[in-house]
Amino acid sequence: MTGVLAASTNQLNPTAVAITVGIPLVVLGALAIILRAWFRLQAHRADAVAMAHYRKLAEDAVANQQELRTELSKLSGKVEAVEKLMRDVG
């Protein structure tokens, strides 16, 4: 029978100490790695959501810009027609 203390010599058994200290350290280390990975995953998810919103905003901006260019070309045509009319009158 082996215990933490050897019965005959009153000395610590190094194997028992290593197991007693090592197992909790390994479990805590694994838990720390899992928690770190989980928080990094949450950060990446938040970044992905923000990037999706940014992409949607960029697409909307491009669509609005195309509309404005179309309206501007129509207005330019009307201004040219008014200028021609003014030249013909004056």
The tally of beta strands, per DSSP, is 0
Counting DSSP H or I runs of 4 or more residues, the number of helices is 1
Helix content: over 70%
Unreliable runs, pLDDT <50, ≥5 residues? none
Structural class: mainly alpha
Taken as a percent bin, the fraction of beta residues is: under 5%
pLDDT averaged over residues:
90
Elements, N to C (H/E) = H
Instruction: Characterize the largest beta sheet: strand count, sense, and whether it forms a barrel.
Output: none
Apparent shape: rod-shaped
Radius of gyration: 38 Å
How far is the first residue's CA from the last residue's CA? 119 Å
Summarize the structure.
This protein is mainly α and 90 residues long.
Please provide a written account of the structure.
It is a single chain. This protein has 90 residues and is mostly helical. Helices cover 84% and strands 0% of the residues. The chain has one helix at 14-89. 0% of the residues are buried. The model has no long low-confidence stretch (mean pLDDT 90).
Write the layout of secondary structure elements.
Elements: H1 14-89
List keywords for this structure.
90 residues, 0% strand, 1 helix, mainly alpha
